[in-house]
Amino acid sequence: MTLSEGVPGTVYKVLDVQEEASIERRLAALGLISGTNITLLNKKKKGAVIFSVRGTRFAIGKVIADGILVEVTN
Amino acid sequence: MKEELNIGFIGNPNCGKTTLFNAYTGAKLKVANWPGVTVEKKEGAMKYHEHLFKLVDLPGIYSLTSYTMEEKVSRNYILSDDVDVIIDVVDASALERNLYLTLQLIELGKPVVLALNMMDIVEERGMEIDMHRLPEMLGIPAIGVSARKKTGLEILMHAASHHKDHSTPDNLVHQHKSDKESKHVHNHHEEYAMVYSDLIEDKIDLIIEELQTHYPHLTNFRWHAIKLLEMDPEIMEKYPINRPDIIDRSYEKDIINQKYDFIEEIIEEVVVNKSKQVATTDKIDNLLTHRFLGLPIFLGIMAIVFFLTFTVGDYLKGYLEILLEWISGGATAGLEAVGAHPMLISLIVDGIIAGVGGILTFLPNIFILFLALAFLEDSGYMSRVAYVMDGIMGKIGLSGRAFIPMLLGFGCTVPAVMASRTLENRRDRLKTMLVTPFMSCSARLPIYVLFSEMFFKEHAMLVAYSMYVIGIVVAILVAFIMSRVEQVGSENSLLIELPEYKAPNARSIAIYVWEKIRDYLTKAGTTIFIASVIMWMISNIGPTGFVTDMSESFAASIGKVLVPIFTPIGLGHWQIVVALISGIAAKEIVVASCGVLYGIGNINSEQGMSDIVTLLAATGFGAVNAYALMVFCLLYVPCAATIATIKKESDSRKYTLCAVAFQLGVAWLMAFLVYQVGRLL
């Protein structure tokens, strides 16, 4: 599933990041890489989300959220 | 011995670099709680014992690649010989993310000192950081400071001055977990903080050999080798090596992953009680970024801001008007008593006091507006607005982030245009710069307050509000039409950090508001003063010399030439035309000029207003004309300072000229519609 399909309040593990090269790099610099756990905090109907990764919150638009593939952690 | 030391402050956005820089230099640079406040490097100086330290505050960045403007600026500055020591400012309460930049900085091979900022917040949260273990793992000194509470500042400078020659790590005591079974020929753990997997270390060794042969003068082979493995475009171009067998692909991802693996190890060993997170921010966010309530809450907040600006501001303005009237009367009486020439009295009373004084009475409105904006910026709400507005902005082909410059535009267009620099691509930046001036800035406020009070009496506030709404609607409409014309699929890539909310800091708010008030006063004392004098001169002197009838003055001749252009929009009076032209210097001057041109000493007073209304009514200038005037003032060319800023930020004379022409056209068209439709009602 993609991050934009997630449910707020859930912790997800990032499986893959499929973005335009420049965005992928910026996300990687923030520590959002395969294997990282992220918490989905908020979501808008259109798919923009707020999540936290490594102790910091970020807001991203739908296009970026669609490119982050995640699975629910146990 | 006296020594000079150049110290560069670097760190992630919003980690408190500028606050720390201000604490040292006594500078009053703007700080706020949203990422990207510092857009260009700022220099300052301080004395440390008998030494002179030069400090440089760099824009906040997350990494040291060469893909964004800020990162390139910071990286090239650090690589240059201009810097002796780097102080890496990190937010100690978000160490995990901040350390990534730290590892990159250490790799650069310059002396680095780690400043763990916000130690007060770390303590508040009950977290602890092992200050003994952290330097052992990184090989650089780590000093806990609090820029806000001004603790640890002396110790940090002490460390910086002692560490200036240490470009290799000292006291490294660590072994990466993943490297237990390393079979690499060298044990790098005593040399480098960051050691990669055998695969990458082998490649680094080979590339270093290659670099040593081809570029023997290079200073930091390891860093260049790593950059080549990452296929960094800038380094590949400068120092190409032809070894596709080693660099068979970009190892950037592997390198990032391994850095973060190491960071996780550091956090595990160094941070105690890290699970104790504050939930306050999340709770506030649940409300402020709520999917349905977020937008109404934002609109409500803005309504309150403008309500306070107009009502409370107007109440206080009343007192200043009384004071001004008293000064004006006193000056006339005093000057007459000493037998001053009537011309001099006229210059001082009708020119300077009417022009400058008229503007100064708006100080309370301006003060309240900026106070409110300071609260919004300092609390951390600003980046939430970017999220809340992202959907709407997406429809007009911009990311939610572009809304921050537009919102700042309510205060002053100049910093707002500069803030557009934080947007990712040039197309978005240019678009934002074009529409930001439509957001009604504080300099336009005196015009609305004056004309709406004169012509709309009890509906004055509603009319003034409507200007803000028209400004926003025009900005959005223009952006929308542009996105349709361009037909470029908007990638709409909002990506912004949401900082922790914090109670607004009295000091940073005071600095912020004082800066703005000082600017306003300076402007009143310089630009507006000079414009008032010029206005008085050209309206009292004509081809025949000193004229008693202003319609024979130079001002009248200039105005009359342009009257035909302004007649279709209901502004075909030479006085108004001249006032509008003078408004290009600064928008407040429109009010000052009206005072001078209509020969009314205190244009804001009851008497002054009714005088001017009578004067204007006699020439057929009524409420519809006044509304058209306000709309024109809202939309036409921003002040000279804005034009200069647009030129600087766009780096294109053509774009700047087009933007100015476009804004003039839009203003004329909108005023035309207002006047022609309004006349029929």
Structure explained in plain terms:
The complex is a heterodimer of chains A (74) and B (681). Chain A is of the alpha+beta class and 74 residues long. Chain A has a single domain, classed as Ferrous iron transport protein A (FeoA) (SH3 type barrels, Roll), CATH 2.30.30.90. Chain A contains two helices and five strands, in the order E-H-E-E-E-H-E. Chain A has helices spanning 21-29, 62-66, and strands at 11-17, 37-43, 49-53, 56-60, 68-72. Chain A has a five-stranded antiparallel β-sheet with strand order 4-3-2-1-5. The longest helix of chain A is centred in the middle third of the chain and has 9 residues, at 21-29. With 681 residues, chain B is an alpha/beta fold. Chain B folds into three domains: 4-162, Rossmann fold; 180-272, Helix Hairpins, CATH 1.10.287; 294-497 and 504-680, no CATH class. Chain B contains 29 helices and eleven strands. In chain B, strands 2-3-1-4-5-7 form a six-stranded mixed β-sheet, with helices on both faces. In chain B, a hairpin with a 2-residue loop joins strand 2 and strand 3. The radius of gyration of chain B is 30 Å and the shape is elongated. The model of chain B has no long low-confidence stretch (mean pLDDT 86). Classes of the chains: A alpha+beta (74), B alpha/beta (681). At the A-B interface, helix 1, strand 2, strand 4 and helix 2 of A face helix 3, helix 10, helix 11, helix 15 and helix 16 of B.
Brief rundown of the structure:
The complex is a heterodimer of chains A (74) and B (681). Chain A is α+β, with helices and mostly antiparallel strands.
Spell out the blueprint of helices and strands.
The complex is a heterodimer of chains A (74) and B (681).
Chain A: E1 11-17, H1 21-29, E2 37-43, E3 49-53, E4 56-60, H2 62-66, E5 68-72
Antiparallel strand pairs in A: 1-2, 1-5, 2-3, 3-4
Chain B: E1 4-11, H1 17-25, E2 42-48, E3 51-57, H2 69-79, E4 85-91, H3 95-107, E5 112-117, H4 119-124, E6 128-129, H5 133-138, E7 142-144, H6 153-162, H7 198-214, H8 221-229, H9 233-238, H10 252-270, E8 271-272, H11 280-288, H12 294-337, H13 342-360, H14 363-379, H15 381-388, H16 390-395, H17 403-408, H18 413-419, H19 426-435, H20 445-456, H21 460-486, E9 495-498, H22 506-540, E10 541-542, E11 545-546, H23 554-566, H24 574-582, H25 589-597, H26 606-618, H27 623-635, H28 640-650, H29 653-680
Parallel strand pairs in B: 1-3, 1-4, 4-5, 5-7
Antiparallel strand pairs in B: 2-3, 6-8, 10-11
